[in-house]
Design goal:
Blueprint (H helix, E strand, L loop, with lengths): L3 E5 L4 H12 L3 E6 L9 E5 L5 H7 L7 E4 L8 H19 L7 E5 L3 H4 L28 H16 L2 E7 L2 E2 L9 H15 L3 E2 L4 H5 L1 E2 L2 E2 H13 L6 E5 L5 E2 H12 L3 E2 L8 H4 L4 H11 L12 H8 L10 H5 L8 H14 L5
Parallel strand pairs: 1-2, 1-4, 2-3, 4-5, 5-6, 6-11, 7-10, 8-13
Antiparallel strand pairs: 9-12
Helix pairs in contact: 1-8, 3-5
Length: 355
Amino acid sequence: MQRTALVIGASGIAGSYVARELISNGWAVYGLSRRPRGDISGVRPVAADLLDPSGLASALTDVAPTHVFITTWMRQATEAENIRVNGTMVRNLLTAVAPKRTVRHVALVTGLKHYLGPFDAYAKSGTLPDTPLRETQPRLPIENFYYAQEDEVYAASTRDRFTWSVHRPHTLIGMAVGNAMNLGTTLAAYATICKETGRVFQFPGSEAQWKGLSDVTDARILAKQLIWAADTDAARNEAFNIVNGDYFRWSWLWGKLADWFGVQAAGFNGRVQPLEAAMANDEARWREIAQRYALIEPDLGRLVSPWHTDLDLGRPIEVMTDMAKSRKLGFTAYQPTDESFFDLFSLLRANRLIP
């Protein structure tokens, strides 16, 4: 039977990789974004705003998905607004696809803030979890827009009788322009600026992150798990962590990243040195670099998210993720983390996003 996927946020890191993986597996794929780029061969673009119910319903008139992959969110000034806006987006979407009664499975991508707390209380809740983080750990007793998104999926699943899966990556590594959370590309741009200016490639984060164990999620691994869960009966109506499958220390990886760019690395030196402050005045410098090397994106703000990189690397605890749940059910994909970064850097260079 032909499977038809509707990928929400198809222009982002997670959504674009999911769309490509679906296409390569023979699915019919629609990609919904506010401003579709149309740069993924085989994806049928759908332009819609998830906060506009009537426009959304109109845009989906001719789309009858069997599977929905929700990979997007919209950042707001407070967590209360994050809850209101992002919960409404999921509710509007699932209401819009309900009338055709074709949806069999909905996958929702959230992340490790499920365990660590929202942006305005990130890793500061006073109830930090034990690591490795496990899916059996309860929700934190604080507001979190991930919980609101999940609850909308659960409610619609009961109403419309589809199955669901929730996927919790940790720091997605992949290529996308205009993404709000993009550590890999942020570090690539930072290293490029360091090389062009002679600055030291300074680790911006905490001692706990520098010395402790960590992991990340290659967007290609996330895409594989999403499709695996949609195709595996035992994986339905379950939440899964998803990371590369290895652990590393930033004290080991930082020098390797510096070597790739040919810059001098500097590690944790006794204090956190936020990247947001270090790159605060680099917009004009990046425009000069883009002009010098004929790069296709002169707007540094569309490539980097130093505020989010600071959140990731500034945590006061080491963060690693348990994947036993999906491993037991047969998901065995693995990706070496250093290669995730090197593959991304090569892709950014091939696409003329860095020199």
